[in-house]
């Protein structure tokens, strides 16, 4: 699962169980953490079928993979030759009246820049926190205009138009999640100007995001033992604001479908290096490569190093799919508004299609 929590929630995802609530037909965490229900229920559904000796069915092969939400390493290392099946039901969706017919591929670019640590006791340290955005899944929600707190925070830094030194940055929690809160600690000389600019910029954001009621920019006095020299501030701000973000290309095949996007999911400082992580999704490898070329070219121009990693396959739409036709015939009696849809998220179907010749694949929720 994608391990994400709301601000103020204390949890160790490696060791703590999730606190969940049941409201009628809905199981949720009441917005405290992510739930991971699609993957958990998918595993449970497969195990239930395998353990029920009363069911009549042809031979079944069950595939359980690891790290689907991280780097697809389970599916990537699967030996397709061990599988006999050519009809694959992928249990990874959360809308019960949809049958998925294709999915995006993706890749990640990590850009870094070495910073120089300095001492400057004349500056006043403040922590700026931009919060209250809705966040979401960087594949399924990227087209909904929810805002990216990393981008908006650096827009604000550009807007204040005053010199400052950086102490620390903490933007976003996971590259696959649209960041909803970002903070930066800086040192400045003029507190009054900073507060004035904050009020102005907050009004701008409220006009741009009228449905986001909790959007806020907090500025708090803090302490700082060091800063990073502001000689790189212009390059840093320009780099982040010039990155392609959110929807890059819409589909010319599916109506209102995103073909290519980029989520600037994480920005932080580690070992005196600024780290910026961009996660790209694309229906076509050519578009994916185009966005990578944009980011790497920008990195080179503004003096950033970069690493391109974690590629995964797209799952292309097939006009002819007997399995999809059969599922549609079965489910139409259950759902009046059954839909066959693509998805702008990564699925393991891309790896299955690449490894298993002539595979007929659909992805459905574990309903």
TrEMBL record:
Keywords: Dipeptidase, Hydrolase, Protease. GO terms for molecular function: dipeptidase activity. The keyword Hydrolase applies. Residues 129-209 form the Peptidase M20 dimerisation domain. The keyword Membrane does not apply. It is an enzyme of class 3 (hydrolase). Its EC number is 3.4.13.-. Signal peptide: none annotated. Gene3D superfamilies: Zn peptidases. PANTHER family: CYTOSOL NON-SPECIFIC DIPEPTIDASE. This is Dipeptidase D. It comes from Peptoniphilus olsenii.
